[in-house]
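Lecture 7, part B: from sequences to assemblies.

Below are the input chains for today's worked example.
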Amino acid sequence: MFAWLWLRVTNLVEAFRKYGNLLRELVVRDIKVRYRKSILGLVWTVLNPLLMMCVITVVFSTIFKQNIPNFPIYYLSGSLIFSFNSEATSNAMHSILSNCSLIKKVYLPKYLFPIACVLSSLVNLAFSLIAMVIVMILTQAPFYPTLLLLPIPIFYTFIFAVGLGMLLAALTVFFRDIAHFYGVFILAWTYFTPIFYPVEILPQAALTLMKFNPMYHYVSYMRNLILYGQVPGVLENLACIVVSLIMLAIGLAVFYRRQDRFVLYI
Amino acid sequence: MSVSVRVDHVSMMFNMSSEKVDSIKEYLIRVLKHKISVQPFWALQDISFELEKGDALGVVGLNGSGKSTLLKLISGILKPTSGTVETYGSIAPLIELGAGFDPELSARENIFLNGAVLGYSREYMAQHYDEILKFAELEDFADIAIKNFSSGMTARLGFAIATMNVPDILILDEILSVGDYKFQEKSFARMETLIHSGATMLFVSHSTSQIEKLCTKALWLDKGHVRMYGPAQEVCQAYEGAWE
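Predicted structure of the full complex, as structure tokens:
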């Protein structure tokens, strides 16, 4: 049993050493191709969330009259981590299909493709955080030392996105319908996560349901660190870890069981 | 001599009807109608052979005889329905030249991307970068996006990258017909050097003269079965003789 486990682990390490370079090249390709032929290039990763925030802030501070202190930061801290997850998982969902020419012609570990998508979204997130820092300076928001702990919720979300991305990638190979449905699902998920409204305005029933929304936990974690200078407790951390690991386990299990048949369906 | 490739009673079955079910609606309809029928197509049946280090195997056969499927099984892209494939050493699969090139990226960027696909490090590719461009005769086009290349240029670049290093096992699917006459001679010469330096080679071609020149052994596939396996010249002559 232990020998078997050890073999699996050494295999994994070996594979990462061999394909680590490819993973990096795939991430670089992703970013390069996305901003090719655009004059501002990578600046868009900073500019995009900034402009988005302006629109949302105008809409919600004039039309809907929300009374959230420092709304721009409230919105950004939630939306950045949410868009990281939705962008990463939507791209990962298409990753096996869009790399079919490679998968049909060369033997490669297939998990590289969804993981590369999540990683390139992670790079995007890092740039977007610059946008948030700019807004924090402009609005003279306080800089809490807890900001240094931001990698923790980002890591939780990363693990979650890898799991969900692998699950979607594997299922989409067999049922293309999922790709059409996921866009609507993401929209519903956006509204059911307190990104531009405070969670308190929800009725009690919805609040209970909200506890089962993984993104709710990651978003509140981000806000605790950025807006309130608080470190979430052991229970909240445990909830995040368990949710991330369950998603990862489901994603890995489905992906590994199906991956040998991908090539027959793409 | 040590064994390099061992193919043991390998069969490959494709399910032809499953190709069409790729939406949930269609799937459910079929489940309700009990029509998840299996329509098996055996692309390969009970193939066995062994190659030693330094062997060069030519695979001949008509279209649809299972040649490409066999190469895909050996390179690990497909998993056999039954039987086992064992390979020892690094594999450079050239099922198609330039697989994984991104049309939006330049030749320079694609060299590094394709090198990574074949498992080489960035430093290693940087060392051999000039050599690759020179062999592909594309020095003047290094910064042009691949989508603007002609198919011959793309194939030359793919060939130059894949044969830059001496792999333990080299898998080639009809790639010696790329490029113009001059480049064909050049790539043929490079193939000979690779074989002499100890690489095991599997090679699909419709040109029996190429196989007779390059290969030591040959395998004749006919509708997924082995029709003949033996020294390259004997098999090639029998293969040609069959159509006269």
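Note for the exam: The first helix of chain B runs from residue 24 to 32. Keep this in mind when comparing with the next example.
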